[in-house]
Amino acid sequence: MPDRRARTSTSPGPGVRRGSLRISPRPGSANQNARASRSPTVASPLARSVQVNRKGSRPVVPRIPVIPTHGGAVDWVQLGPVGWSAAVLCGVSLAVLLDGALARHGVSLGPAGWITLTRGVLACGVAGLTAESYVGGDHVALVVAAATIGLCLDAVDGRVARRTGTETPLGARFDMEVDAFLIAVLSVYVAPTVGWWVLAIGALRYAYVAVTWVVRWLRRPLPPRYSAKVVAAIQGIVLTVAASGLPPPALTRLALAVALALLVESFARDVRTLWRLRAEGLPSVGRAPAGALVTPGALTAVAVAGLWLALVMPDPADGLAADDLLRIPLEGLVLVAAALVLPPRPGRWAAAGFGALAGALVVLRVLDSGFAVVLDRPFDPLGDWSYLGSGVGVLGDSIGDLGARVAAVAAVLLVGLVVVGLALAAARVARVAADHRRGAVRGVVALGTAWAVCAVASIHVGGGAPVAAAGATGLAVDTVDRVRTGFADREDFAEEIEADPFADVPAEDLLTGLRGRDVLLVFVESYGRTATRGSSYAPGVQDVLTDGTRRLAAAGYATRSAYLTSPTYGAGSWLAHGTAQSGLWVDSERRYGQLLDSDRLTLTSAFERAGWRTVFDVPANTEDWPEGAAFYGFDTIYDSRNVGYAGPEFGYAPVPDQYTLEHFRREELAPADRPPVFAEIDLISSHHPWTPPPPLVPWDEVGDGSVFHGTTEDAEPVDQEADPTRAQDLYGRSIQYSWETLVSFLETYPDPDRVLIVLGDHEPWSYVSGDPDDGAGRDVPVTVISQDRGVVRRIADWGWHPGLLPPDGAPVWPMSDLRDRVLATFGAGG
């Protein structure tokens, strides 16, 4: 509202958010993103729990876990790096701006000012909680509590100022800015749950101020108006209630709409008043004292604090705690020492470059942490940038293209702010050190001695990190080594691609042992060893596999099972698919892209060369996949758009497994006059996020999928952080569903001239399967199923075990061995 110096306004916070951000986009095509974010999730509307795991898709930045603290006074503040960053940024901005304002006015905070400052700190906390809510943190109680306290204190500071005779224009302005900021933050918190139009409540005041920079007559001060105070208080109260999530959604939206209407009317009334007075000259009012907006000392303190935090920043997945700041960064000491010995101009340029590098390392550390959580590996600077662009597509499916573009621009601006801000901070620290040589020398000597002592004595802070820190240097060295290794691996992998013993095998000698048979390579999403052994959900899966073995044997099928080691973990299905098909170890986006650009013989192209019709059935795809078509060379691809499915979606899966198999049978297996078919079929009902699977229906009733309406499609995916046991149970049930569907399909439609190779692509995420470094591993089951005993005899020397359930002692091959084993065993010399 217009500047009413004697008036205040209040504001609280928004809706409930649950879940976590998991984005896994796709590689070459915009194709495989869309599906993930369209499935209902238990996450904020912005941070939908999306993981795309399809052909051509690539993972991006996954969930950011809640930050654990290392003990002490801040243990109750369970904020992740996003929340901490937002809260600290707001808090530092508050401190710096207030310090500058007090210096310009030549005053200090009075009793009322300290109360307003407390409200400002609470507002910064709400800002951190709001930022955290967009990546999965659920802190509704804290948001509501902080906002409520802020509302109550807003009614106190003005009275204290009047009773103590300490009213000042600066105090009134400070009070008003804190009110406006809290209202803006709370509108951001509520918006994803209620609707983005709620942002207007927080934006109106700032929009008005922006207009006053251009329209001078709007700058006229207005006398206090009681109704305006009431309207401001209503905004805070309604937003706080909306944040609690207690009222019904319809009532919440109505209350917020009424509050917004009152706010617009209040602004309109003020504008009308000022319009009538526009012809009169502006009254001469005392201008704010001239001076710097921020004091030099405060600016230097912010620069030192920002650099210090950037240099000692731990792995975000390990958590940020107050005692992490007790570490001494070696790189900071080197910066100051260099400033003392270098000439002024080179010293400033060197310091700015140092700061920019520190900013880049902060970004890299965050990326490393995200990739480690989702893919159990660090970020690859040479090959993983495509994930970031793909993530925008995934986010667009969740919040709309405009929102995704805004978020992408905001992310780019944030990265730029970090890099440029740290460059300026380092330059300032270097200049101040050069201008105060004696103090800088003493500081470097003292901290350098402390660093050396702590390094020699191996002294650690409470969380286990060494006080003598050099993490930024270590990360830089690791990154350089990673890049160097990546360049070398390009050449090595190119040689591996070319060294193909089957590339020149004549077509008539390929796969002679499978001539006339349909061969189906079936990937079961997230089907890992933990589904069969050593987990809470394994017994249920074991029962289904044991029963399936019995039923298939009764139907005349032979089964042989073992394990393959997947090149990926938790996500990145396309890497596993590429590995199995090409006979190469494809464990990175860089290798995957290199593979797609080659003419490597795959299982698909080998079968196609030998006379099979080749098909891909990828129900997760929502757009064309030209890279896959060019590389694999399949004759036909089925995706979510061209299978005629008219049923509901179930969690991530746009098409349930039963419909996928039935449609494939109708189109490819049922026709009588046809060549044999080789197909890769992806069963994705076990894809994260997991929901109760649909029931199996009689196969002759599947039709166009409408029969699945009214089953389990409305069930929301489980919040894996709030209820990991439930998530594990639903994961196990989804694997059971996929296998029950497959066994039923084979019973219903037997064919002695059909061979299936059924395998998992990777383990599910660690909150289900466990840490791969702590025994979960990367192994996935693999099974050959056929009624043709000749096929089973040919693979006898593989040593695989009978049945669908491989025992603990079953053979374990690298997944990259599968292609060569199939081509060698069933080739002319097999």
UniProtKB/TrEMBL annotation:
Record keywords, A-Z: Membrane, Transferase, Transmembrane, Transmembrane helix
Pfam families tied to this protein: CDP-OH_P_transf
Residue span of region Disordered: 1-48
Ranges annotated as biased composition (Polar residues): 29-42
GO MF, one annotated term: phosphotransferase activity, for other substituted phosphate groups
GO cellular component, one term: membrane
Membrane-crossing residue ranges in chain numbering: 250-268, 289-313, 325-342, 349-367, 406-427, 439-459
Signal sequence annotation: none
GO BP annotations listed: phospholipid biosynthetic process
Membership in a protein family: Belongs to the CDP-alcohol phosphatidyltransferase class-I family.
Descriptive protein name: CDP-alcohol phosphatidyltransferase family protein
Organism ancestry: Bacteria, Bacillati, Actinomycetota, Actinomycetes, Propionibacteriales
